[in-house]
Amino acid sequence: MIFGRSKPTSSAIERARIEEAVPPGMRIAGAWSWRILVIAGVVALLIFLIMELRVIVIPLMVSILVSALLVPFSHFLQRHGWPKWLAIVTALVATIAVITGLVWLIIWQVRAGLPELQAQSLEAWDEFKQFLLDSPLHLTDAQISQYGMQLWETVQRDSAVWISGAASIGSSAGHLIAGLFLVIFASIIILIDGKGIWAWIVRIFPRRARAAVDGSGRAGWGTLTEFVKVQIFVAAIDAVGIGLGAAILQLPLVIPIAVAVFLGSFVPIVGAVLTGALAVFVALVFKDVVIAIIMLAIVLLVQQVESHILQPLIMGNAVKVHPLAVVFAVAGGGYLAGIPGALFAVPVVATLNTMISYIARGRWRADASPGLPAIVKARRGSSPAASSPASESVFDD
């Protein structure tokens, strides 16, 4: 018929029969499968680009973490009458002074105790070899040397990923210096114009999505800020606990041990354990097995307090990520990007978790006002998403 509905073609009928032959559950599974594959492909491409651009990405990530710590401090000074420029300069100078002081303290302590540490290490190794020679194992000196070489090769092989990750910021001193300047420059820009940067990012998205992007970003920034503050507090407790135990046992290099524990604690769960093993090693080398066992007990006690008291009560509220997810995030980040990956894994997962939860719950519909253009005009007034969790964020002046 000319004016009637045209008859379906044979190919259309065949496709309809095929569709009817496929069970509904299979059609739903297929629809989910190709969408999941697309998402996985995008994520894989994103990870590949991050790995290729790690010389830029790592300093940027460090600057974001630094800014998450300094923005609240800068706002605190501004609320107490400090000019904005003076508050920013004070925050940056104080941070650089603290980091420089810690590095100088470690170098000074290690240089002072390094000769004795080398001598004691050789003496401890000789005593351990003699113990193995006299043991019921009946090992020879050649066998002990061979096993020692195999152990050292294993350590070198397994640590290659971590060492390469630590050096992934740059393959030379020039790259390291450039990365340091990138961190400082990006931190200054975020402190000065974080609101404008975020407004520009929001403008990239379609108008209908801007409220969700703005609200989720603010919520994620609030989580990141809380994570940094809480992680510093937890790291300080770990450092004080293990350092105090080392001082009571009269171990050398107490300050480097405490600082190493403090820095290592920024890699949740794994970092403090590895740096605590350094204290046990020093106790074994400079003292004896009994003191080393006591030091091990102190390290385990501090870790138990952190895991069962501090993590659930303090870190749990800030991160809202299950400890099992934390462990797998650290392991995956360390495998993909070495030490930087392990360091950034938990804050990235925690921030993404908050942002996705915020969007999924539809909170942005309640937080957003009808005037969506105001979201991208951050310089002209307060943002309509000011009621989001990040009450004191980089997005506000």
Care to describe what's here?
- The protein has 397 residues and is an all-alpha fold.
- The chain has 13 helices and no strands.
- It has one domain.
- Helix 8 (210-248) packs antiparallel against helix 12.
- The longest helix is centred in the N-terminal third of the chain and has 51 residues, at 84-134.
- It is globular.
- The chain starts with 9 loop residues before the first helix and ends in a 30-residue tail after the last helix.
Question: Which helices and strands appear, and what pairs or packs with what?
Answer:
Elements: H1 10-21, H2 24-52, H3 54-79, H4 84-134, H5 141-158, H6 160-166, H7 173-204, H8 210-248, H9 254-264, H10 270-286, H11 289-319, H12 323-360, H13 363-367
Helix pairs in contact: 3-4, 3-7, 3-8, 4-7, 4-10, 6-12, 8-9, 8-10, 8-11, 8-12, 9-10, 10-11
Pfam families: AI-2E_transport (PF01594)
Membrane topology: Multi-pass membrane protein
Family: Belongs to the autoinducer-2 exporter (AI-2E) (TC 2.A.86) family.
DSSP strand content: under 5%
> In terms of structural class, how would the helical and strand content be classed?
mainly alpha
Rg is 28 Å
What count of domains describes the coordinates?
Answer: 1
What is the residue-averaged pLDDT? Answer: 78
What proportion of the residues is helical, as a percent range? over 70%
| Count of runs of 4 or more consecutive helical residues | 13
Spans with pLDDT under 50 lasting ≥5 residues?
A: 369-376, 378-391
First and last CA, distance: 69 Å
Shape: globular
